[in-house]
Fold this protein.
Amino acid sequence: MLRKLLCWLGLAAALSLPAEQADAGNGINTIAFTSYRNVTSCAIDANVTGDDDSSAVLRLEVTTPSEYVLAGTAAFDSGMTMVRRIGGGGGASDAATGNMFHGRILWMYPGEKVYWRCVYTDAGGGGGTSAIDSVTSFAIPTPPATGPRWYVSKSGNDAWDGTSPTFVSGSIGPKLTITAALTAMNADANDGANGGVVVGRGIYNEKVSLDFGTDALSDGLPVYRFLIGDGVSVDSTVLDGSLMPIRESLSWNALASGSADSTYYAICLSCDSISSVILDYSEYIHRKTTKQEIFADAMGELSGWFFVDGAANADTLFVKRRTGASPAGMYVHAGYQFSQNSLVQVRKRNWIIKNLTFRFAGGTSGTSRHGIELSTGSLRISNIVIDSCRFYGNTGHGVYLPVYGGAGGADTIVVANCTFRGLGI
């Protein structure tokens, strides 16, 4: 799926229209158009003077470059009727009469160019068609090739400098952890501007923060930093929030043997502080607060799990599947409550996250149990690109964007070519 919100000021042009008003002030005098480019759409604003009786109607018409060239003269398709934005004008009189109109050119491909014009009518006169203009949607930003790179490998060493994907000699070689590579990047003179961290194939039980960088622009565009996987295949580079010691299957015993509604238990010495249970890779088990809730199908949910922190060597995990079948032979992925519960927390602008899998994020907080979490509190995050990533088995959402509040929140986010299982965005 693809979610837009990459918005930059585009073209602004004032257009003088024929003075055909039947009634002074009621007809359209002029229209000033402004375009804004997004990734899968482009916005057009029209600031109208005149139209004191608010009877103007503006409609966008669109054609693609190939249609434009083949037709010789543009063969336009009818597009969106522009919406009058009350109180949205550019001047005092416009604000009073609501002479600002807004429309969008939708269903564009990233980087696609279209030609457009506006057909306008007004009961008071001044109708016509604007000059033909063009606008191009933004292409999905890609990791810059001009900046420094730090590499991470399962065969790496955090004592090495991270400047090579393989060991060379001395201290030249990849880092072992993503956190160490990000720390080295942050220590760079320019915080790794136009550069980033490349994570090699493997499963990484880490939760990391992208909390450095600047909001600087270069030629009017963001200076990006990136965190990317090797991109060789699906799930080749994984950030995994489950507890490593219990990834393997456990030894299960039936609590109510022979029942179609059986609850099973297993001794699990490493299950302290878990916050979610997923069997194999996709079967979510509902969290209960007591064993009795499991038996009673509390909250109308047939599945359930509960952990009893018992005496030494008696820590027990209770699980009931919706089918009543035994979990024997299945992998148990238990999301763990790290001090930071989302796998990646983004705390600065202008980051690209690509070719990574995010799974089994733990945590019990409603805002801290996600694959990727964008901003909290008073921080406003923008210009974030999440491309070609996979999300599954997380307690919360794959990508979490907080609702605006005060100065905080998140905007200008692109989520492209990603797959979600469970809660999405």
Observations:
- The chain has a mean pLDDT of 81.
